[in-house]
Amino acid sequence: MVEPPCKIKLLICGGGNGAHTLTGLASSRANVEVNVMSLFADEAERWRKTLGNDDFTVHFTEKDGSVTPIKSKPKIITNDPAQAVPGCNLIIFTVPAFAHEGYFKALAPYIEENAVVVGLPSQPGFQFQCVDLLGERGKKCAIVSFESLPWACRIMTFAREVKVLGAKDTLSAAIIMRKCKPQFEILPTIQYLLGPEPNLTQANNYLAINLLADANVHPPIMYGTWKDWDNKPMAEKPLFYQGLNEFCADLLSKVSYELMETAKAIEKECPVFDMKDVIHLHDWYKLNYKESISDDSTLLSCMKSNKAYDGLVHPMKETDDGKFVPDFKYRYMAEDMPFGFIVFRGIAQLAGVKTPAMDETIYWCQKIMGKEFLVDGELNGKDMNITRAPQRYNFKCIRDLVDLQ
Predict the structure, then answer these.
(1) What is the DSSP letter of 393?
(2) For the Opine dehydrogenase domain, which residue ranges apply (predicted)?
(3) What percentage of the chain reaches a pLDDT higher than 70?
(4) Catalytic residue chosen out of the listed positions 20, 100, 218, 314
């Protein structure tokens, strides 16, 4: 890792697990000044007051299982964009996709030319929304889209300490430069902030990142796990990834093949768009978690034997008698459908690809959510306006998506 040639004035948007982790890591680097902006309720004030003058600690779990404490402190923590944004040359979103719109609108009056805007992760449709909401000021800003968070991480004590359970081995990002002339090399600078893991690589284009997102995992697992649930509370919270069943693994594989077919159709229509980064989920796990997986023979075994997923359970709500029922309002559906699965489906629709596995998942999930996206095989439901599908932004064909690059 090489220190950037200029001072990095970093704005971290958010206050959750990812924001805590990035704040601690980035603040520990030389020649980096970190501002944190949270627009959620009084989160910024609580973080600022709770931390006070103390150091913030990241407990980083290394590959050998040892834990390294990293102590640091951000410059400011605020909910005021007028205080947080001016002067920042790197802006990283670590908030859920449903919150992106509010942050884009807060940034728009203050963002400066040649700033680099990063979604970590971006979640599908991030680029469409960024271009739409940053308007004229955004035309000289680069857009960077990461496929997922770099780590599995959990807040231990709000505003004070966070634990990294495991880091991915590699992580891919797409960069749309637009008219931006950044003060630093984008990917090496973000690598400097994160540390040696994961190893960051550049995807060939942003559509590949859109089709690689983590959101293709969560809805099928929710559907496959709970479709036959008898509505009786459970004594324990079931494991999310490591409790995977054969139906879930088969459905995930089918969805993955549909995304690969979509990528092939895009490349056939526009050969300039190299889509080879869109690989099967089984291969993705072997690439990104090769040090954490003890059995990589199948997709099912990859997920069940991944130590980075140790202890991660289904989102559940506790009943009055101490048992548990699934929380269908958790982000695995509330976010990953409108800002993930529906975007995949929208891109596939523009590419003319049939998606029976995606459709099966969407029909169940939208019924549970009380939403309507897919109707008779077409994305024209009454709730499409809350999604980031390309259809919402008036993209009519694959060529429209390619021209955004």
Answers:
(1) G
(2) 203-369
(3) 99
(4) 218
